[in-house]
Amino acid sequence: MAEQSTVTFIITRQDSPESSPYQETFNIPYKRNMNVISGLMEIRQNPVNANGEKTSPVQWDMNCLEEVCGACSMVINGTARQSCAALIDELEQPVRLKPMNTFPVVRDLFVDREQMFDSLKQIKAWIPIDGTYDLGEGPRMPEKKRQWAYELSKCMSCGVCLEACPNVNDKSDFIGPAALSQARLFNAHPTGEMNKSERLEGLMEDGGISGCGNAQNCVQVCPKGIPLTTSIAAMNRATNIQSFKNFFGSDHAH
């Protein structure tokens, strides 16, 4: 194969949250081992489209550049993924970039993932401890449990699983697979377990676990290989047990 000298990007752009999207094409110099973000940086440095017209730099979100922060998710050639890990040599040309559909567009490829963080609030994805005095070391997590909990902790709230899930859309308030798995993570923690029922109650609210249609798209697209469907099944069982406890609990005993 002849060494290519340029890479063509066809980018879906949007000037503001209210304006209509449009496409703009860019030809940029090819470099070995370049990823999508290095291409976008090239455009930012020299914002001239394929027609030779000066244009505004393309906006996108990024931070770590090593597939840990989750910020640079976008739809690349029809698949939602991290743009830092998307190598040009492995992509079909021209490279088509679009913002994720599931989230409101701020500008161009930059979307607002706030709904993911609201979902984490709904399921109380933290471990509340009283920080006013030293409680000493918490209980140790058994090694076997720690190993699978670590897999769940790799979630970076990138939004790719929500983009792939057919049940996450503007006609549904389903919080999506990531938050369901995070409830499992924090309920597995020896200290977090104290607030287990509160997280399960969050999953039982509107938009919670009942919104899952078991499409299993999420587990196929997760860039961290998190066993999302296993977590959802575990949380399904746990919420069923919790609903029995609620029904036969102290409120009904009196």
UniProtKB/TrEMBL annotation:
State the needed cofactors, names only.
Answer: [4Fe-4S] cluster; [2Fe-2S] cluster; [3Fe-4S] cluster
Q: Tell me the Gene3D superfamilies matching this sequence.
A: 3.10.20.30, Alpha-helical ferredoxin (1.10.1060.10)
Q: Which InterPro entries match?
A: 2Fe-2S_ferredoxin-like_sf, 4Fe4S_Fe-S-bd, 4Fe4S_Fe_S_CS, Beta-grasp_dom_sf, Helical_ferredxn, SDH/FRD_Iron-Sulfur, Succ_DH/fum_Rdtase_Fe-S, Succ_DH/fum_Rdtase_N
Enzyme Commission code(s) on record: 1.3.5.1
Q: Which residues form the 4Fe-4S ferredoxin-type domain?
A: 146-174
Keywords of this entry:
2Fe-2S, 3Fe-4S, 4Fe-4S, Iron, Iron-sulfur, Metal-binding, Oxidoreductase, Tricarboxylic acid cycle
Enzyme class, first EC level, given as a word? oxidoreductase
Give the protein family.
Belongs to the succinate dehydrogenase/fumarate reductase iron-sulfur protein family.
Name assigned to this protein: succinate dehydrogenase
